[in-house]
Each structure stands twice: as C-alpha cells, then as structure tokens.
Amino acid sequence: MSIRKPFSRWLGALGAVPALACNACGQGTINYVLPDTPISFGPVPGFEYRLVDFNSDGKADFAFDSILGISTKVVPQQQHRILVQPEPPPDLGGYVQPLLKGTSISIDLAQPGLLWNDGSGPVGGATLSACAAPFGCIGPWIGLTAYSGIEIELNGQKHYGWMQIAHFQFSNGGALVDWAYETRPGVPILAGAVPEPSARTLLLSGVVYFLCAHGRKRKLKADMIL
Questions:
Q1: Residue 175 sits in which domain range?
Q2: What CA–CA distance (Å, rounded) separates 116 from 109?
Q3: CB 172 within 8 A of CB 37
Q4: pLDDT tens track of the chain, all 226 residues?
Q5: How many domains in the chain?
Q6: Is 14 helix (H, G, I), strand (E, B) or coil?
Q7: Measured between alpha carbons, how far is residue 213 from residues 11, 12, 13, 16 in Å?
Q8: Which of 2, 9, 78, 121 has its CA 20 to 30 A from that of 92?
Q9: Does this model's pTM top 0.90?
Q10: Is residue 17 part of a domain?
Q11: 129 in a domain, yes or no?
C-alpha cells in the first residue's frame, strides 16, 4: 500500500501534464524574434533606409524608409505584404494599420477600408507617419506602440505574422521592437503571440516538479522521525 499510493500519484501527475500541454501543441509553430535592442528608424540620428531580415536567410523582408525625412514608410520586400488603411482619393498610398494585441491576423483581416499592400505603386510602401513644419505630424501611428499585420511568402506559400512598432510622438522616428510569424502556411496568428512551451517540455517539467516535491516530502518525514 505504501508503494502503490505514491506511484498512483506519480502517474496522475504525468497524466495531467499532457492535458495542460494540449493548448500549447499548436503554438510551438511560431517563429519569434526579439532583438537585443530595438531596431531604430527615422530622421534621428539621420535619414536612412533600414532593411530587416526576419528569418536570417540573407534576404531583406521589410524596409523602413525615412530617406526623404518628411515621412517614414514600411516597404515590403520580395512578395511580402503589410496591412494598410488606404488614403482617401485623390491621395495615393495608405497608412500602416495599427492593431491591438490579440487581433487575429489572416487573409480575412483585409475588410472594407483595409488592404494588403505589397510595396508596389507610385508611393512605394505604406506610410507610418508624415511630418512637415509648421503643420506637425499626421498618421494613425503617431506616438503609438502597436502591432502591424504582415503576410510573408516562403517557398511560394503565404504565412501570417506581426511586427510590434513603437513610434515617437513628434517625429518620423521610432523602433521595431520585435516580430513573429506562423511557420504553417495560411494559418492565422494573433498579434503579439509568441511560442508556448511544447508538450514535451511541459511533460519534462512535470516530472522534475514531481520528483522535487516527492524528495522534499520524504526529507520532511525523515526530519520528523529524527
């Protein structure tokens, strides 16, 4: 009896771990990158064309263009796209659409008033902000930290992801904080979603926790006997 009872508890603990892990099984497919420091862009310290390689394959995926100094644009590279809010006619182009954390990003996110922009066309990309003295700055991203919806093409298949962008209040400057994309083609991703532990990691953690707890319990009993 004294052997069977702890063993049954051990099996129960292990059995509970896969149940806890089931919600994480589909989350281990997210490729998430947090740079050591945010990737800055904008007119300070200088006009620039900042290229970002999302998956370290040696090819730029997006560019932050503030060469002209009066605006900052996000320019998709290759055949990637970014979600934008079109400017009303007769203006051309559109603004990068800010998204709240938890927004589901997929092909269906484009709805009346929103479009996927591939960087082609006369304006070349989507505008984050535009500033001109003495009028100030315009755009939905001014002074905001939010998520942008992105669509990247890998091996001929479309993947959905997000970029977290922090924008300064009174300039065209800001920083790319982090980014992620779903490695399964066509699968939606939530803005701000990062990989959760795999079922195997949770299982091993459960085993370690049980063994440690069981060891502490045995030590406590021994101390009480002494």
A1: 28-190
A2: 9
A3: no
A4: 544 455 445 444 444 444 443 333 345 799 999 999 999 887 665 568 899 999 889 999 999 998 777 888 999 999 999 999 987 766 667 899 999 999 999 999 988 789 999 988 777 889 988 887 777 788 888 889 999 999 999 999 999 999 999 998 777 789 999 999 999 999 999 999 999 875 444 444 455 454 555 555 555 555 556 5
A5: 1
A6: helix
A7: 14, 14, 11, 16
A8: 78
A9: no
A10: no
A11: yes
Return the structure tokens found at 11.
Answer: 């099996």
Residue 170 DSSP label = S
Query: 145: which 2 tokens?
Result: 């930290």
Residues 6+ apart with CB under 8 A from 101: 147, 190, 191, 192
DSSP code, position 196: P
Domain presence at residue 34: yes
Residue type for 8, please? S
In a domain, 10, yes or no: no
